[in-house]
Design goal:
Pfam families: NLPC_P60 (PF00877). This protein is α+β, with helices and mostly antiparallel strands and 202 residues long. It contains seven helices and eight strands; from the N terminus they run ααααββααβββββαβ. The strands form two sheets. It has a six-stranded antiparallel beta sheet with strand order 3-8-4-5-6-7. A two-stranded antiparallel ribbon has the order 1-2.
């Protein structure tokens, strides 16, 4: 699906079985070299990558309200946290992430991202079960992330500034060249209530 967004390449790089899936995907799309600051405003490839990140965030929002189901990985069956992120990345950018959140956090080729460097499209991880990287969601901008929280709840947007999430933040990961620079303005009706208590994640 990434090929549909980024367009076909005139020449494909030779396949390299030693590359991790993310590096291979970027190499196949001739996106291994990051654009310079000077070329970013005119680079079609960069513009398409930015649009892809925006599409990923919008794709994730299409699943708001889908029920949490442990082990779920489709809209029809419901989602758990890592099933949700895996489904969104596979169906919006064609990248198949590992099934478990801890495996997603340690995937080769993903970049570590600091809390103050988050961009829409980044994976955000939390320690919600006394285990590192036990929960994952997708950063959507404005200190918000979208995720499948726990049994009895639905896919929703939460505010990372709430103490529950601040205390449990484990880090973030980025697909190179994919994160959207800047912020996504969220419609008011999608934002979590300022007084709502966060849903404890599984």
């Amino acid at each position: 699906m990434l090929g549909l967004t980024l367009g076909a390449c005139a020449t494909a790089a030779p396949a390299n079985d030693t590359l991790d899936p993310i590096s291979r995907l970027l190499q196949e799309r001739n996106l291994t070299a990051a654009p310079t600051e000077e070329s970013r405003t005119t680079s079609d490839a960069y513009r398409r990558m930015r649009d892809t990140a925006s599409d990923l965030v919008l794709s994730a929002m299409n699943f708001l309200g889908v029920p949490y189901v442990r082990g779920g990985n489709t809209e029809a069956s419901g989602f758990d946290c890592s099933g949700f992120t895996r489904h969104v990345f596979e169906n919006s950018v064609g990248l198949l992430l590992p099934r478990r959140s801890a495996e997603q956090a340690t995937s080769a080729g993903l970049l570590d991202v600091g809390r103050t460097e988050l961009r829409p499209g980044d994976l955000v991880f939390f320690n919600t079960m006394r285990s590192a990287f036990s929960h994952v969601g997708i950063y959507v901008g404005d200190d918000k992330f979208i995720h499948a929280p726990r049994t009895g709840s639905n896919v929703r947007i939460e505010d990372m500034r709430q103490s529950y999430w601040q205390q449990r933040f484990d880090g973030a990961r980025r697909v190179p060249g994919l994160a959207l620079k800047g912020q996504v303005r969220l419609p008011a009706d999608l934002l979590p209530s300022a007084v709502a208590s966060p849903l404890r994640a599984e």
